[in-house]
Write a structure and sequence with these properties.
The chain is an all-alpha fold. The protein has five helices and no strands.
Amino acid sequence: MIAFHAWLKGIDFEAAKVELYPPDDNRPKRLLHPAERLTKAQLQELGYTLRTPQRRAPAGIDAVQWRRHRKAELDLMWREWKRHEAFQRNHIARLTQMLAEAEAQTPHNSPEPTELRVQRLDLRQCVANA
């Protein structure tokens, strides 16, 4: 419909879109639960295979009951995400501390054993990828 309107008026698509559907900045935006802002990849890190629960109640379920259930589920997802973030931060801090201790214990003038060098590189890659 927008393309047809643009063709009739002889204007570009964006101008026709603004003309037909003017932006309404006064309209309140729907507030999202923080768990609804998680990406699909973040949800998969937590073990969720589906997106967040739908806003509308499924057929046969009371709307009030569904809203309560949905909010409880979103709250649970958000708490799990915050715990996951805290675990990752602590894990990276521990790995960094272990790396610093290993470097402090290794004398810099002696040749480094190959095994220790490989372990140190692996540890750096883990920290860099996290």
